[in-house]
Amino acid sequence: MFKSATVKLTFWYVLLAVALCLAYSVVVYHLSTEELSEALNHQYHSYTDNDHGRYNIPLPEPYIHEHGAHLLKGLVWFNVVVVAGSCIAGYFLARQTLRPIEHAHQAQVRFTAEASHELRTPLAAIRADTEVALMEKGLTTKTKHTLEGNLRDIERLEQLTANLLDIARYQNGSQIKLAVLDFDELIRQAIKQLAHKAEQKHIKFKAAITPVQVMGEQRVLEQLVIIILDNAIKYSHEKTTVTISLNTDDTHAVLIIKDKGVGIPTSDLPHIFEHFYRSQNTDAISHTSGYGLGLPLAQEIIKAHNGQITIESHEKRGTTATITLPLA
After folding, report:
1. pLDDT above 60 for 59
2. CA atoms of 118 and 109, how far apart (whole Å)
3. Residues 272-295, mean pLDDT to the nearest whole number
4. What mean pLDDT is predicted for residues 151-175?
5. Span 93-122, mean pLDDT?
6. Domain 179-326 carries which CATH code?
7. Which residues 6+ apart lie within 8 Å of 85 measured at CB?
8. Residue 156 to residue 307: CA distance in whole angstroms
9. Long-range CB contacts for residues 189-195, cutoff 8 Å, separation at least 24
10. Tens digits of per-residue pLDDT, 37-51?
């Protein structure tokens, strides 16, 4: 992330230096040739006006053109030196500018990873105690409902810590283990895992899946597909259809998941990959829950696999997620 930011910032530094240098060169060239032309023409006319024409004084234009050519050559070399120097200086300045931001970002990632890791142990203990308490006989209905609610909240917190750990792992540049995968079979497995959740809302899957092989990590790519499918189910209206298509172009596998749900407002679309950001209309589906980490995690997974993810949405009409991954 910071390497690309350094390159972009260097580009803008160089572009600014080139613009200033070109402006300076144009002004110098224009003033020099104009002043020389005016001076030589003045001398020429003063001689010819004083009856010195018999001396066959040459016209000044060839000298003006010769001087302009030499000046232009010098200015070209000057611009080349400035561009080369600005590239080196711009890169150095960009690194110096971004270094404090990079350090702060790394500290934030480390804190996220360490805090999430430390939370896993107490959450596991609380979960175990709650499950044991639920198995006791003689619990009142109110107590049982309270414990079941606590268990659901613990599961949500466990998912939150797992997502934070995964995001931190990718942002730290952790390498994934690439292998040739049957992407079509992986998608079918993800559909099976979420079939029960879809049935609860009477949502049907309409799949058109072509056999495709990609390079990736099995667990991670399965997690990616589940995130997108889960969102499609979560924000779809009841008794609707989620359409899934998988095909290829010349170099990439293209997975398209389309739902007929609440959609995302246009003002929210630029922020959907931000951590903990949730769209304004999530309350339209009363039973949805989440922390706004699904799509940021999906984006990190896609980056790790050198792919792309795009989201197109229209409020009250549905959302289309398009995932592209390099073919094996």
Report:
1. no
2. 14
3. 72
4. 79
5. 77
6. 3.30.565.10
7. none
8. 28
9. 189/222, 190/222, 190/225, 190/226, 190/229, 191/229, 191/244, 193/226, 194/226, 194/229, 194/230, 194/233
10. 666 666 666 666 555
Q: Where are the domains of the chain?
A: 1-174, 179-326
Per-residue HEC secondary structure of the chain comes to CHHHHHHHHHHHHHHHHHHHHHHHHHHHHHHHHHHHHHHHHHHHHHHHHCCCHHHCCCCCHHHHHHHHHHHHHHHHHHHHHHHHHHHHHHHHHHHHHHHHHHHHHHHHHHHHHHHHHHHHHHHHHHHHHHHHHHCCCCCCHHHHHHHHHHHHHHHHHHHHHHHHHHHHHHHCCCCCCCEEEEHHHHHHHHHHHHHHHHHHCCCEEEEEECCCEEEECHHHHHHHHHHHHHHHHHCECCCCEEEEEEEECCCEEEEEEECCECCCCCCCHHHCCCCCCCCHHHHHCCCCCCCCCHHHHHHHHHHHCCCEEEEEEECCCEEEEEEEEEEC
Band of residue 162 on the pLDDT scale cut at 50, 70, 90:
confident
Sign of the Cα pseudo-torsion (285, 286, 292, 294, in order)? negative
pLDDT (0 to 100) of residue 253: 92
The answer to whether the CB of 184 falls within 8 A of the CB of 246 is: yes
Q: How far is CA 92 from CA 82, 95, 135, 309, 324, in A?
A: 15, 5, 64, 33, 35
The residue type found at 255 is: L
Residue labelled with tokens 């999430």: 116
